[in-house]
Amino acid sequence: MASSEKKTRLSKVFKDPVHGEIELHPLCVKIIDTQEFQRLRFIKQLGGCCYLYHGATHTRFEHCIGVCHLAGKLVEAVTKRLEDESVVDKGLVSDKEKLCVKIAGLCHDLGHGPYSHMFENVVNEDRKKKGQVKWTHEDASKELVDRIYRNLDGDFKDYDLDEKDVEIIKELIHPPENHLKDVSEGDDEDKKKKFFLYEIVANETCGVDVDKWDYFARDALYLGVKNGFDHDRLISSARACYDDKGVRHVAYRDKDISTLYEMFHLRYSLHRIAYQHKVTKAADLMILDAMQKADDIVIKADDGNVKKISETPDDLGTYVNLNDNVIFKIKEQTGNAKAKEVVNRLLRRDLYEYLGKKIIGDEETEDDIVNQVLSENENEGESLRSHVGVFFASFDYGSKDKNPVLEAYFYGKKDMKKAVQKKEGEVSQMMLPKKFNEKVARVYCKSTDPEHVEKLRKMVNEWRK
Questions:
Q1: Are the beta carbons of 198 and 171 closer than 8 angstroms?
Q2: Residue 2 confidence (pLDDT)
Q3: At a CB cut-off of 8 Å and minimum separation 6, what does 286 contact?
């Protein structure tokens, strides 16, 4: 069969509940039909949030397909405007580079573990005890991209993609540290011209990217939350514009600044009412406890190799067999009675009792909070230590204590090629909160004993004062 016939035959249209009918590139379809990607069907997008919102059972699988679609829309829109307005820029971004952006969008969350972000806590607390470096799901995503390439190298080569292109895909998923600074101060003009490609899937410059656009729309749909943010408006105005150092950024029309504020405010709202809600975090804390206590549970790779739950990122063969179903594996197989009890409570929604919260400083740790609470009753506090659970919630607009809109790039009607950042005095103060970040410590009682609950509640009330 001819190569062109093969490519045509392998294309596929997906019916998506958020974006409608979307057509994905043949190579993206091949990637979707791998074990590494299909695993995402069994990893919930919002982890324990399904114990708060019953509709929040959507998965990383559909989110990644949505991000792939939006990455394609944005890169096509931006490059078309470039080519329509400048003869010099015709062919600047090749079809192969556009495909790399789409694949990066598709694979950006491959590395997520059971119940999404919660699993990173499981791994990193174990690694901290062993003196090992911190692990992130982005690390695993890049490793899984390498694994897919090794298994599909012939399919990648059909579209002229090789090892160098795979490295670019991984950088698009998680750009190198100080990437903008290095490109700005360097003398590679081609990198400067194409830097905007690194602001599509994971925008480290200002946080405006298609990953957020999809999960805002998708999460709001499944949570039943009204969403006033319109990512299509931003796509329709997006351009690749030069900053004063000759680096091209994804920039938006200056009159769309209110749309960006809507986006960042939606982010804050979703964190407050869903992602970091006290009930969501009670469920997350129970999932964390169950996985940490069940240290006798092992995950088996197809080659027979086995790893403990927290060690699976060290062996991708075991990691691709790990998903949300690990909770049922713990229930059925663990010999740890406490782990089994936590899972059984979770499955009948008997969640840890929420006791109260307090705004805290950035430097305080979970151990600090536990010690502060227990110190309110010197006689009995220490005996209740094992029953105290603490979870931190951090609320911001995406740039910690900064205004994220001031980090974004805009262009004006009179000069559509120049990317500029707004200064504080140029932005309406009516759109701004008084403070852009807040860290909260939430305290829970893990015990079902009413006496324990009541004693800890009194201590927490004193601590809050």
A1: yes
A2: 46
A3: 48, 342, 345, 346, 351, 352
pTM over the 0.85 mark: yes
Cα 143 to Cα 132: distance, rounded to the nearest angstrom = 18
Q: Based on the number of CB atoms within 10 Å of its own CB, is 91 exposed (0-12), middle (13-18) or buried (19 or more)?
A: exposed
Each residue of 80-134: pLDDT tens digit?
Answer: 999 888 766 788 899 999 999 999 999 999 999 999 888 999 999 999 999 999 9
- Residue written as tokens 């911001």? 396
Rounded CA separation 41/59 (Å): 6
Q: Which of 58, 63, 112, 137 is catalytic?
A: 137
Rg (alpha carbons) of the chain, rounded to whole number:
24
Bridge partners of 444, per DSSP, are 354, 389
Distances (CA, A) of 349 to 39, 182, 274, 445: 26, 50, 17, 15
pLDDT of 188 reads 94
- For residue 357, the cross-strand partners are 442
* Closest among 130, 96, 90, 84 to 25, alpha carbons compared: 96
With beta carbons less than 8 A apart as the criterion, state whether 157 and 344 touch: no
Is 137 marked active-site? yes
pLDDT at 315 over 50: yes
What CA–CA distance (Å, rounded) separates 220 from 229? Answer: 10
As given in the structure block, the two tokens for residue 102 are 């789409």
Distance between CA 463 and CA 465 in Å, rounded? 5
Give the residues across from 389 on adjacent strands.
444
The token pair that represents 111 in the structure block: 């590395």
Residue with token string 């220490």: 382
Give the contacts of 65 (CB within 8 A, at least 6 positions apart).
14, 16, 22, 24, 32, 106
